[in-house]
Amino acid sequence: MKDLLAEISTAIGHADYHASEVSTSVTYFFVGLLVVMIVCLALEEKIHAKKSVIVGGIALVALFFGTWFELLPFADVKALPIGGHEISIPVYIPGVDWEVIAIILGSSLFVDVTSKSGLFTWVAVKLTKFSRGDPLYLLCLYGVMTVIFSAALNNVTAMIIVGSLTGVSLKKLGQEDKLLGFLLVEGLLTNIGGLLTLISSVPNIIVGSAAGISFIDFFMKAAPYVVVATIATIALGAKLFGISRLRKEEEKAEAVQLVSGFDEKEGVESTGFFFFGAIMMLLFIATVASASQLPVIKDLGLGYVALAFGGIMLFRFKATADRFYKAIDWDLLAFFACLFAVINVMEHAQVLALIGTWLSPIIGMGEVSGPSFLLVAAAGASSVTDNIPLAAMLAKILGGMPEISGAPDSPFWWAVIFGANLGGNLTPIGSASTLVAVTIIHKQGLRLPFATFVKTALPYAMLQLVLAAVYLLLVN
Asked: Within its chain, how far is the Cα of 115 from the centroid?
C-alpha cells in the first residue's frame, strides 16, 4: 500500500511529501475527517448549519492535526522574499485557488447588478408572448431559456427567474395543473445548462482550470451534448406530464389574449441602463470567450475579467454599491476558501493519493469504458452531497496523473464534469438549483417529497447520463 501511495504521490508532484513519511493510520484518520465533512454537507438542512460553517470547522480541525502530525509545509511559506523583504504567509493561504474565488465574486456582482436593468425579465416575458400561450411551446421556450440563463448567469439565479415567471404565467393562462411538470423540467434543465460553458457552474471552473480547457474548447465540446440532452429532457417531460399543444381555436384565441396582457417593460426602470446592461452582457461573454487570446488579459486571467466587469457595472449604483456587497453570497465564498484549505491538507496527508489508488482500476480500463464508469461514480457521489468538493478532489487527483494532466481533451476530465453536474438531477439535494426548484414547487402549494422527487426525476437523470456516456464514447 505504501509503495503504491508513494508512486501516485510522486506522479502528483509532491516530492517533499512522500507516502513513506505519512503512516497509513494517519491517512485514514484524515479520510474519516473527509467523510464527516461530506456527510455533514449532505445533511446540511437537517443539522441547520451553513456550508461555510461545516467546512470551516473541518478546516480548523484538519489544519490543527495537519500541523500536529507535521504534514504541512511551514518552511515553504514562513519567509517568502518579495521586493527585497521577507513576509510571512499563513500555511492555508497558498492552498486556496484565488482565481476561482475571483471568478465567483466578480460574476455574482456582475449578474446581480445587470439583473436590476430588467434585461432578464424582459427576455422572459418576450418569450412568453412569442409562445402565444400554447403550453407545449411555452415549455420548449422556458426550457431553452432555463438552459441559456443557467449558462450565462448561474443555476440558482436562472431557476429563480424562470420559476417565478412560470408560476405567474401558468396561473394567468389557467394552466396551473401543468405547474409541477414545468417546474421540475426547468429544475433538471438548470444542471444541463450548467454544462454549456466554462463558467456556467463551479465544477466546470474547477475541473476546466485544472485540465487547462479554454472557454471556446469547453463550449465546442459541451454544446452538442447540451442541445441533445435539452431536447430529450423537454420531450420526456412533455410526454410524462401530458403537456401538449392547444387544439381548439377558441382556446388558442383566449391564450393569445391573456398573454398579450404581459408587460415586458415592467421591470425596466431606465431605458439607458437597460441597453447598457445588454451591451455589457454581450461584452462580458465575448471577453470571457477570448480571454486566452487577448494581450494582458490572458496573463491576468478570468478572475480579473469577472471582477473588472462587476466593478464597471457597480458604477451605475456607485452611491449605493454597499447594498450589492450585502447581497453577495459570502457563505459560498467562505465555503470555497475553507474547502481549498481542507483539500490542501488532505493532499499532504496522502488522502488524494489513496483515493487515486481506488480510482486506478477505473483509469486502468482505458479511454473506452473507463470514462463511463467514472461518470456514473461522479454522478452518484454528486447526488448525495455537494458536487464542489467532489470536483475539487477529482480534479486534483486527475491533475496528478501524467497521462491525463497534460491532455485537456481526455474523456476522464469530461466524465467528472458531466457526472458532477448531472448527478444533481438524481436527488433534490444534489444541486442548489434543484433544491430551489423544489422550494418553489412547495411555495406553489404542490407536494413533492424527497422519495417522490427521486422517483419522478430518475427517468430524466438516467436518460441524461446514458446520453453523456454515449457522447463520451463518440467524441473520444
From this structure: 20
* Residue 267: all three cell numbers together: 421591470
Q: Report CA-CA distances (Å) from 158 to 80, 152, 442.
A: 43, 9, 18
pTM of the model: 0.69
Tell me, what DSSP letter sits at residue 93? Answer: S
Give the rounded distance of the alpha carbon of 333 from its chain centre: 14
For CA atoms 202, 56, 390, 161, the dihedral sign is negative
Classify burial at 349, counting beta carbons within 10 Å of its beta carbon; exposed 0-12, middle 13-18, buried 19 or more.
buried
Dihedral sign of CA atoms 70, 71, 75, 77 in order: negative
User: Of the candidates 133, 177, 141, 178, which has an alpha carbon nearest to the alpha carbon of residue 162?
Assistant: 141
Distance (Å, rounded) from C-alpha 11 to C-alpha 232?
41
The three cell numbers locating residue 206:
474547477
- Look-up of cell digits 521577507: 86
Nearest to 13 by CA among 410, 413, 405, 415: 405
Distance between CA atoms of residues 112 and 299, nearest Å: 26
Q: Which residue has the cell 508532484?
A: 13
Q: Dihedral sign for Cα 370, 381, 404, 66, please.
A: negative
Closest CA to 276 of 312, 235, 328, 319: 312
Question: How many angstroms separate the CA atoms of 321 and 326, rounded?
Answer: 9
pLDDT in tens, 413-470: 999 999 989 988 987 767 767 877 887 788 788 888 877 888 999 999 999 999 999 9
At position 1, the amino acid (one-letter code) is M
CA 424 to CA 384: how far, in whole Å? Answer: 8
**What pairs with residue 86 in β-bridges?**
81
Q: Could you tell me which of 148, 155, 201 has the C-alpha nearest to residue 391?
A: 201
- Grid coordinates representing 353? 493519493
Beta-bridge partners for 80: 87
CA pair distance 162, 160, nearest whole angstrom: 6
User: What cell numbers appear for 412 in the block?
Assistant: 476522464
